[in-house]
Amino acid sequence: MSHIVFFLVPGVHLLDLAGPAQVFSTTADFGHPYTLTYVAEQPQVSSAQGLPLAAGLDWPDLGPEDLIVVPGWRTVALADGPAIGAASLQALRNHHARGGTVASVCAGAEALGQAGLLDGRHCTTHHDVQDELALRHPGAVVVRDVLFTADDRVITSAGIASGIDLALHLVATRHGPAVAAQVARDMVVYARRNGHEPQSSAMLRHRSHLDDTVHRVQDLIDARFDQPLPLPTLASAVGVSERTLTRLFSRATGLTPLRYQQTLRLERAQHLIHHGATIDAAARSVGFEDPRMLRRLRARTG
User: Fold this and answer.
1) What is the spatial distance between Cα 286 and Cα 262, in angstroms, rounded to a whole number?
2) 203 within some domain
3) Distance of alpha carbon 68 from alpha carbon 4, whole angstroms
4) pLDDT of the residue at 200
5) Are residues 88 and 137 in the same domain?
6) Does the residue 199 lie in any domain?
7) 159 and 234 housed in the same domain
8) Which of 53, 180, 218, 294 is deepest in the core (most CB within 10 A)?
9) Nearest to residue 23, comparing CAs of 124, 163, 176?
10) Is 184 among the domain residues?
């Protein structure tokens, strides 16, 4: 079980907090247990939207598998933000030093900067305060206009809704892209990755739609991509005709169900080959009876 601790400061933005919290809570609903805890320097914190939030005062014992998230707060300038106590900054430093991960949303990057965790690392924040973050923490490498960055267990996001992207990235890293896609679908959000990089997984790349029938077919293919999955079997599983399924699937993803399955197989085979497997062994592992099919697909994609 992993512990997620949200460190709250006065003026915290509700969506900066609620977005990542919902991602981890939904992930727990799908059988990957998380404990969510809220810590602050006072027992009640006023949010930027006026809703008072209760929080604990004591930091729990954390291990390397645990995460601290600092949601952002309402501010015109980082220099005018709420004061953060030395003990809280030390808690951030200690957790990272012990092998844990720290993350921020929006202006929360300022807290990581004050803790010295941005020095020499790539980071980002809301576009309104990117320049100021770079000036206040000259040792940081501020990456502008991206959804989030990840550098040596320090993860920062641009702000507001991008905290959801950050949390989905962490879920995909820990549990795989299929789980992240499942969570995104349940939350009715796009399963996105970083704003300046192509999405690295087909399971996420082709999930940016809201067609529930297609999602259910993708769930089946994701779980059994290394097995024969004839079109009649897939169509029967979701209660539509083969022609309807092909039309819906192509409209939502740009691929036929077979091409989607082949894409997953190819992606997994490439991973195995890069880790030392032979082409023949990788082909068998992902369900190709004839390794020549894998060779043709690899040649087609360059």
Assistant:
1) 9
2) no
3) 6
4) 52
5) yes
6) no
7) no
8) 218
9) 163
10) no
Check the CA dihedral 47-148-89-82 and report its sign: negative
Nearest to 47 by CA among 22, 71, 28: 71
Q: Report residue 249 as tokens.
A: 């699937």
State the Cα angle at 134 between 131 and 135, rounded to 5°: 90
The pLDDT tens digits for 50-94 are: 999 999 999 999 999 999 999 999 988 999 999 999 999 999 999
Residue 34 scores a pLDDT above 60: yes
Cα dist from 230 to 212, 221, 222, 296, whole Å? 20, 11, 14, 21
Q: Does 172 lie in the same domain as 45?
A: yes
SS3 20: helix
DSSP-derived letter for residue 73 is: B
Residue 28 sits in the same domain as residue 140: yes
Of the candidates 54, 26, 50, 25, the one whose C-alpha atom is nearest the C-alpha of residue 38 is: 54
Q: Are residues 142 and 291 in the same domain?
A: no
Q: Which residue carries 């805890």 as its tokens?
A: 37
Task: Please tell me the total count of domains within the chain.
Answer: 2
Q: Which helix (H) or strand (E) holds 299?
A: helix 291-301
Does the pLDDT at position 177 exceed 90?
A: no
State whether 7 and 143 are in the same domain.
yes
Distances in Å between the Cα of 268 and the Cα atoms of 110, 130, 225 are 39, 37, 10
- Long-range contacts, stretch 229-234, CB < 8 angstroms, 24+ apart: 229/257, 229/261, 231/257, 231/258
213 and 83 housed in the same domain: no
- At residue 210 the predicted structure's pLDDT band, cuts being 50, 70 and 90, is confident
Single out the residue in 163, 179, 195 at which a domain terminates: 179
How much is the pLDDT for 236?
Answer: 97
- Same-domain pairing of 115 and 221: no
Angle between helical axes of 177-187 and 162-175 (0-180°, round to 10): 140
Task: List the domain range (segments joined by +) for residue 223.
Answer: 209-301
Integer angstrom CA distances of residue 201 from 50, 191, 260, 270, 293: 39, 10, 12, 12, 21
- 187, 163 contact by CB (below 8 A): no
Contact 103, 40 (CB under 8 A): no
Residue 128 falls inside a structural domain = yes
